[in-house]
Design a protein that fits this description.
Elements: E1 2-11, E2 15-24, E3 27-32, H1 36-40, E4 46-49, E5 54-57, E6 59-64, H2 84-89, E7 92-97, H3 108-121, E8 124-129, H4 143-149, E9 153-161, H5 171-188, E10 193-198, H6 206-214, E11 222-225, H7 231-242, E12 246-250, H8 255-264, E13 272-275, E14 281-285, E15 291-296, H9 300-312, H10 317-322, H11 326-331, E16 348-351, E17 357-362, E18 365-369, E19 372-373
Parallel strand pairs: 1-4, 1-5, 6-7, 7-8, 8-9, 9-10, 10-11, 11-12, 12-13
Antiparallel strand pairs: 1-2, 2-3, 5-16, 14-15, 16-17, 17-18, 18-19
Length: about 400
């Protein structure tokens, strides 16, 4: 299938100006001027007039509880699986699924099956092996084997540190799993990254600093999330990124201010990403560690905060888009994702001045057409509603 997108202003995420985008099959074939008459004559080809629209890469969400999470308040508080329509409606074309606190009633076999199901429904999906606990639960019995032998596994996570719900791993245990991931990545050509959940304990990122300072660990193999819990943690994340690690903010009501403050503290923007924590639990505990409230994270928060940052963070649109496209692709070593360029996957979003998506593509297949979803989940009863338009900033909690 061939699609010509004519006259869009391209942010790849760097600004390229107004150009045409030619898509052949699942890949971008050419960026520049293309004769529309020649394309229109091809069987099954389509030409989309994108005049007045802006094109950017599809968003990559590196932290999604695709099979649900939660359970901190008992069996009835286990959160639901995510729906493909929620993913697409939020501008996301690639997700990485993970397990959190619960790797007992949530399994890696189920996580992998859900990822494959999402791909059948129209998006790209990867998973992390492991969960909060160490030693890590896996599919094959080995972190290295999971990464090398299972195509969708790209690393381990979310491993919990500085958190009451973690299994309080030693630095040696952390060094062991990061090393396993790194070797698995080398053998398979994947990221081999370890994704760390950082809790609210005053130790903050000290365990990860020790990994980089005391062990022969490659800094890009470390990827810390939930870094906006307080000012001290954010400053600590700036220091970790300066060593070459990647850091991730969970989208929420404080995202604009957190991004602004990260920059003020001298944070390396190339090492920063945004994620949704979608379908994970957002628990609140009292001083004694008792659960007092529990809500569910929504993928739409990532969508909302991208545009909020574009308007109010002081960053350019190109810089903000990089936080959910190119930077994430670099962190996860997804060489064909996150950019609009020839030979890259045709994951594309086209939006109007009101930040409403008018057209979308995932691996070359159209997911949004003139503002309406073209993909339905297998068990959706009826066609989904129109895509999201910009709305006020969302939640503040994080799993």
């Amino acid at each position: 299938m061939v699609t010509l997108i004519r006259g869009a202003e391209i942010f790849a995420p760097e600004p390229l100006g107004v150009r045409d985008i030619l898509v052949e099959g699942s890949r971008i074939a050419h960026i520049g001027e293309v004769d529309p008459a020649g394309i229109a004559a091809l069987p099954g080809a389509q030409v989309i007039d994108a005049s007045g629209l802006t094109a950017c890469p599809g968003f990559i969400d590196p932290h999604v509880h695709i099979t649900g999470g939660g359970g901190e308040g008992g069996y009835a508080t286990r959160t639901p699986e995510i729906a493909v329509t929620d993913i697409i409606r939020s501008g996301v074309t690639t997700v990485v699924g993970c397990l959190g606190t619960d790797s007992v009633t949530r399994t890696h076999a189920g996580l992998l099956a859900k990822a494959r199901g999402l791909e059948e429904e129209g998006i790209t999906a990867f998973v992390y092996t492991g969960s909060y606990q160490l030693p890590a639960r896996t599919i094959t019995g080995s972190v290295v084997d999971d990464i090398v032998l299972i195509d969708r596994v790209i690393g381990a996570g979310e491993i919990a540190v500085s958190e009451r719900r973690s299994f309080q791993p030693t630095i040696e245990a952390l060094a062991d799993i990061v090393s396993q991931c790194h070797v698995g990545g080398l053998l398979s050509g994947k990221a081999g990254i370890t994704h760390f959940h950082v809790g609210s304990h005053e130790s903050r990122l000290a365990p990860l600093h020790r990994l980089l300072d005391d062990y022969p660990i490659a800094p890009p193999a470390v990827y810390a999330t939930h870094i906006t819990r307080d000012e001290e943690l954010l400053a600590d994340a700036v220091a970790l990124a300066a060593k070459g690690a990647f850091v991730d903010m969970t989208a929420g009501a404080s995202t604009v201010e957190s991004v602004r403050r990260y920059v003020e503290l001298g944070g390396d923007l190339d090492r920063l990403t945004l994620s949704s924590d979608a379908n994970g639990s957002l628990p609140r505990f009292d001083a004694q560690g008792r659960l007092i409230d529990l809500t569910v994270a929504d993928q739409s928060t990532l969508f909302e905060q991208v545009w909020a940052c574009a308007e109010s963070s002081g960053l350019s649109l190109s810089q903000v888009l990089a936080l959910v496209t190119a930077n994430t692709a670099d962190a996860l070593k997804l060489s064909r994702k996150g950019r609009i360029a020839p030979r890259h996957d045709a994951d594309l979003l086209l939006f109007d001045e009101g930040r409403t998506f008018r057209h979308g593509f995932a691996m070359g297949h159209q997911t949004i057409s003139y503002g309406r979803l073209q993909v339905r989940g297998t068990f959706d009863a009826a066609p989904s509603q129109t895509t999201r338009s910009q709305s006020p900033p969302g939640r503040s909690g994080r799993d």
